[in-house]
Design a protein that fits this description.
Blueprint lengths: L1 H25 L4 E3 L16 H7 L3 E2 L3 E5 L7 E4 L1 H6 L7 E3 L3 E5 L4 E7 L10 E7 L35 H27 L2
Parallel strand pairs: 1-3, 2-8
Antiparallel strand pairs: 3-6, 4-5, 4-7, 7-8
Helix pairs in contact: 1-4
Length: 197
């Protein structure tokens, strides 16, 4: 009987450890600077695929965010539907951002499409497509569009996509600290318990 109890308790603490690690990873949302070292702008001819290559080299999850940096007097960024992305059409954006320091929060899994809001820039490869995975790593296509169109007085985009203020460094530190504490408690309690037997 003692062996079965020990086995069940070991399994319980291993599950607690895995849950603690999962919480720590989930709390670690990441802010991606679009283009890496490059600002949001027209790519050079030699590096025309910079945004596609950058997107493919990263894995985006719910809770992450995209930071677009650009001179506000010279550029902007708009979120568009796939058809508008493929045709470089700026006339019907889902969301428009033009402050030069635009933060876009990834709130749902699926594909997102961004282009420059300045005419002619998209045709010069200033466009970005990303795929967002759920926090568990699975990709689920976005649900179909609503059957009721918004009224003329309502915004043409969902407010959940809008730029949100970036949390202060103390808030980010608090989140990472909490995640570290939870993971540490899980690991220490598991090791301590296993050493009892």
């Amino acid at each position: 009987m003692g062996y079965h109890l020990h086995s069940k308790l070991c399994s319980f603490f291993q599950a607690c450890l895995l849950l603690s690690l999962k919480i720590a990873v989930t709390c670690g949302a990441y802010e991606f600077k679009v283009g890496g070292l490059h600002a949001w702008g027209i790519p050079t001819k030699a590096n025309a695929q910079i945004y596609n290559n950058w997107s493919k080299s990263n894995r985006f999850h719910i809770g992450d965010s995209l930071l677009f940096l650009y001179p506000p007097s010279q550029d902007s960024v708009i979120q568009v539907a796939e058809e508008a992305y493929n045709g470089c059409k700026t006339s019907d954006p889902i969301l428009a951002m033009d402050d030069g320091n635009s933060l876009f929060n990834l709130t749902k899994p699926g594909k997102y499409f961004f282009i420059s809001g300045v005419a002619g820039h998209c045709e010069k490869s200033q466009k970005l497509e990303i795929t967002v995975f759920s926090s568990y790593g699975d990709f689920y296509p976005p649900s179909s569009a609503p059957s009721v169109l918004p009224s003329a007085s309502s915004p043409s985009y969902a407010t959940v996509f809008g730029p949100m203020p970036m949390p202060s460094s103390s808030e980010r530190s608090r989140t990472h600290f909490l995640a570290s504490v939870i993971a540490g408690i899980g690991a220490i309690s598991s090791v301590a318990f296993l050493n009892l037997f």
